[in-house]
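Bumping my old thread because nobody answered last time. Still need a sequence for this structure:
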């Protein structure tokens, strides 16, 4: 059965050997294929014969931080933190959060952890403009990253913007709908 992981992702596993196509009900709202960016709502046609792995969908307005692959928890990731943002529908929330600590000790009990709140807002007077912000709400731990790549998903278009990873930041993006949704202006600033 499909299941929702947190409030941002829906997963459609194929745990049986059934190979017949099926309809899957997604929770209300706009959802995007994690692998292909296609927009879905309500029902999704799922054909396990053409799927090499589980189908994963991300809610529009989700902000999901991701790190590069590591082989074990003691290995620090190499590269920037990625903050993936899926373009929200009008009036829908656009939020996410990150918590980080050393992962091995109980130092978090002595406030040795980092917490960041993410938000985004579409300017509906100009629906092609998105502002993504990060605000450190607790800074008792130094993270492994020194830069952040903000990865904005708008349908099948994906745009990446580098932001300063050591303080609060803001990324202001404007898309040009007349040029296939290409990125027109980007401003990344620390606050």
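Sorry it took so long. Here it is:
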């Amino acid at each position: 059965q499909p299941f929702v992981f947190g409030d941002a992702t829906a997963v459609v596993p194929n745990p049986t050997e059934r190979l017949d196509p099926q309809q899957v009900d997604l929770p209300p709202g706009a959802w995007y294929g994690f692998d292909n960016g296609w927009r879905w709502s309500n029902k999704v046609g799922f054909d396990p014969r053409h799927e090499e792995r589980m189908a994963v969908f991300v809610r529009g307005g989700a902000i999901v931080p991701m790190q590069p692959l590591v082989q074990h928890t003691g290995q620090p990731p190499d590269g920037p933190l990625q903050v993936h943002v899926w373009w929200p529908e009008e009036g829908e929330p656009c939020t996410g959060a990150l918590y980080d600590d050393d992962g091995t000790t109980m130092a978090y009990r002595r406030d040795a952890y980092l917490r960041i709140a993410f938000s985004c807002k579409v300017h509906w007077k100009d629906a092609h403009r998105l502002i993504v912000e990060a605000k450190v709400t607790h800074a008792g731990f130094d993270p492994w990253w020194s830069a952040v790549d903000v990865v904005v998903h708008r349908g099948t278009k994906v745009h990446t913007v580098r932001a300063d990873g050591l303080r609060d930041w803001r990324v202001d993006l404007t898309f040009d709908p007349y040029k296939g949704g290409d990125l027109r202006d980007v401003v990344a600033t620390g606050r």
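DSSP finds no helices and 16 strands in the chain. Let me know if any region looks off to you.
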